Amino acid sequence: MEVELTADQKAFARQAVETGRLHREEEAVQEALALWEERERARAEVRAAVDMAERSLARGEGRPITQQSMRDLAIQVKQRGRTRLAAEQPAAL
């Protein structure tokens, strides 16, 4: 496969080699593809999570979000945190 880079991309890759960041200009393309692959995998995971959430909502498993439900959730989270902190504290003498 042949890849045609823009002048700026070539200069960027060349600079990475000159500064010692990469050994060869080809590594720039390999690194770019690896990052792209990582991003696409993360995007697929997000899409899968959204699909799962939408199916859950379609089954009626969601709950309404209101100011009161958010306050209640905050209280629950704080309480769990306090309980966890208390459990981690050494016993008083």
Description of the structure:
The protein has one domain (7-88). It contains three helices and no strands. The protein has helices at residues 7-18, 26-58, 67-88. The termini are far apart. The mean pLDDT is 93.
Shape: elongated
Rounded average pLDDT: 93
Our measurement of the CA-to-CA distance between the termini, rounded to an integer number of angstroms, reads 72 Å
Output the helix-strand order: HHH
Q: How many domains is the backbone divided into?
A: 1
Proportion of residues in helical segments: over 70%
Number of contiguous helices = 3
Derived structural class: mainly alpha
Biggest beta sheet summary: none
Uncertain parts: none
Radius of gyration: 25 Å
Beta-strand residue percentage = under 5%
State the total count of DSSP E strands.
0
For the structure shown, list the relevant keywords.
mainly alpha; single chain; 3 helices; 0% strand; 72% helix; 93 residues
